[in-house]
Amino acid sequence: MDPDALRAALDRWTDEEVIDEPTAERIREFEAGREQSTPDGPPRETDPDGPRTDSDPIAAGTGHVDHAADDGLLGRGRVVVALALMGGALVAVGVGAFLFERWEAIPVAARVAILLGVPIAAGGGGAVLRGDAPRTAHGLWLLAAIFTGVTLFQVAELAELDADTVGPWLLAAWTVVALVIAAGLDSRPVAGLGAVLGGAAVVTAIEPVEFLLVPGLYGSLLLAAGVLLAGRDGSATAAIAATAATDSEGGHTRRRSVPRVAATFRWMGGAAVVVLLALVVAVGPPGRAAVAPGEALLGAAVVVAAGIGVLRARAGGVRTREGRQASKGRVDDRDDRAAWYAVSPVVVAPLGIGAAWGLGFVGVGDIGGAVAALGLLLALLFALVAAAVGLGETAPVNVAALGFVLGVGAFLVGPLAGVVSGPLALVAAGLVLLATGLGAERGRREVLERIR
């Protein structure tokens, strides 16, 4: 049986209580054994980003794991994905390097034909191969997404446009193209590319004078987008992701897996805010600076996103690990708490960034500022752990563990190093890091057990 069809059927049967989860697990194990016993059979690959396994935070968030993907023929699908993505990226880099070396010797008409032809041909090839060879199609779409930037900037240069003036707009257009492709494929790599390009567009347009406010607000906005795009029953993502859909069989709506795009946004946004707060712990808050109009606009967007998250949590519109109850019209207190857990970092992240930025106006000193920033970081880490429990996925736990180690290490090598002598600081740092690692490992294990 086709593995994707089997996974969809098991999801539907367990959601409608036709079979229980142990029975579904036995079916998965049986089909996995059949795949391993027929290694020479034809490949059955319809998921463009590879099968989801236990280590996949999205699969962990749904409670339905494709165990057949761990071994056998399907388990090698991730190797095919890696090869396809590397191939697409190398082709984009190679063509770009070739054009850079011989640009002046190529006629203008040929330049335009190459610049427009490469992304169009790659996208067309991806569309043609998506049904029969989805992983190779994924690599071609990545090539199209990467080379779109080369096309935009080189065409702007041929048109003799001012790079400083049109640069942010070109980055914004490149971001839109990447996000459209990522949404259509539900692709983590292309979503990550779009998120990075979006950050570059925001920074280029605003031109901040300090390191914290604009990147921190953008990371908070990215985190909020990742939570808000994960609708309770998939309806919030149906317009942008092919994998977020409804099942009309029997006249009911069925919750599907969280899109990989949304999970990528949550991971990247949370990691960005955590790293920035750890940097504040190490070097102190930035100095006083006036708020530019672009910064105010970005902050307003973050406030609106956080407000939408709160309203959706109150209305029960946030996807949680308890979402199956809501899909059947039974919303209980446990699901309500899970919704608030899921949106907690959407509120805490921008508050932490704003408070850390405001420390520069208070004049609390290096030690006081580091302690305050460490407290803000720990508050965000608690919110990420709560979101992991609410969403039922492991990625926020990993980000929280990373942030905890970074925060403690930043405090030790930053303000504390200036108070304690070098050898004693090294000993203290080593002991604290060992204790931190032990605590983080045990805490992470307990949270993961609760998620499961």
Please describe what this structure looks like.
By secondary structure, the chain is an all-alpha fold. Among the domains are: 3-75, no CATH class; 264-452, no CATH class. It has 17 helices and no strands. It has helices at 3-15, 21-37, 57-62, 72-75, 77-102, 108-129, 134-158, 163-185, 188-206, 213-228, 260-283, 293-315, 323-327, 333-362, 365-391, 395-413, 422-451. Helix 8 packs antiparallel against helix 9 and helix 11 runs antiparallel to helix 15 (365-391). The longest helix is centred in the C-terminal third of the chain and has 30 residues, at 333-362. The radius of gyration is 24 Å and the shape is globular. Residues 38-76, 232-258 and 323-331 have low confidence and may be disordered.
In short:
By secondary structure, the protein is mainly alpha-helical. It has helices at 3-15, 21-37, 57-62, 72-75, 77-102, 108-129, 134-158, 163-185, 188-206, 213-228, 260-283, 293-315, 323-327, 333-362, 365-391, 395-413, 422-451.
The level of helicity is over 70%
Biggest beta sheet summary: none
* Number of extended strands: 0
Percent of residues in beta strands?
under 5%
Ordered list of secondary-structure elements with their pairings:
Elements: H1 3-15, H2 21-37, H3 57-62, H4 72-75, H5 77-102, H6 108-129, H7 134-158, H8 163-185, H9 188-206, H10 213-228, H11 260-283, H12 293-315, H13 323-327, H14 333-362, H15 365-391, H16 395-413, H17 422-451
Characteristics:
452 residues; mainly alpha; 17 helices; 73% helix
